[in-house]
# Entry
Amino acid sequence: MERIPHSEWPEGMYPLMANVEAYIAKSGLDQKLVKLLKFRVSQINSCAYCLDMHYKEAIHIGETPQRLYSVSAWRETPYYTPKEQAALAFAETLTHLPAEEHSDHIHDELDKYFSKKEIAHLTLVIAQINTWNRLVRSFGTVPGGYQVREKAAAN
# Structure
């Protein structure tokens, strides 16, 4: 049930979110990794609309269905690189954000594969998809009808 349709979002809210997405798209991060992280965080947050969107976008840019449907069990599979595993662990830690746990060990692993700038960008990707998940779930955006556009696929 849609509670707040897109047409009733407060003025400026969507452009603000879209500007962050545009910044992320230009960050230099591997967009397949970005889509994988967005998909995994959306799984954790049970955001059906975002799962539909990011699945379709990831497939469109060459991700495989197997890697997407298996990402919730990434620790048990052989088809995620150590770099992807470090990013997935980071995404899960930031999404769950246990107050009593320090994330130093996650940064130790990230430092092996990413620069400080890339880690900052990964953090923004994870924060942004968590924000989208919460907006979409609160607003009741109806899943299933998302269509990939060329511009969206590049994001």
DSSP finds eight helices and no strands in the chain. The two ends are 27 Å apart (CA to CA). The CA atoms of residues 93 and 102 lie 10 Å apart.
